[in-house]
From TrEMBL:
It comes from Chromobacterium sphagni. The lineage of its organism: Bacteria, Pseudomonadati, Pseudomonadota, Betaproteobacteria, Neisseriales. Keywords: Signal. It comes from the Bacteria. This is DUF2845 domain-containing protein. Residues 1-19 form the signal peptide.
Length: 100
């Protein structure tokens, strides 16, 4: 096999791999005020992430705030999806819902 072919196979396998849902024992360790690095270190790699930037003007100074949502999807073993919202790299909201 060529190196290019092996690299293509590895990319395809990586795209199919999913993150694990967050077990309850880990979920209860999550809290508002955590840094994103601590969150990912505790909960593991998320299934999905989305970003948005919000701008504003305060006291005549332009500001930009980054909001990010990370999602860990439910599976057959752990039926809970967890969505964590971060603002400027800090956890501001944690939502957990049971998959029906």
């Amino acid at each position: 096999m060529t190196t290019r072919f092996v690299a293509l196979i590895l990319l395809l396998v990586a795209g199919v791999a999913h993150a694990e849902p967050i077990p309850f024992e880990t979920f209860i360790k999550l809290h508002n005020g955590m840094l994103e690095a601590e969150l990912v270190s505790t909960a593991g790699r998320p299934d999905y992430g989305s970003d948005s930037n919000q701008g504003g003007v305060a006291s005549g100074i332009a500001t930009v705030s980054t909001t990010r949502q990370l999602s860990w999807l439910a599976n057959g073993n752990i039926p809970y999806t967890t969505i964590v919202t971060l603002r400027d790299g800090v956890v501001v909201n944690i939502k957990r819902s049971k998959k029906l």
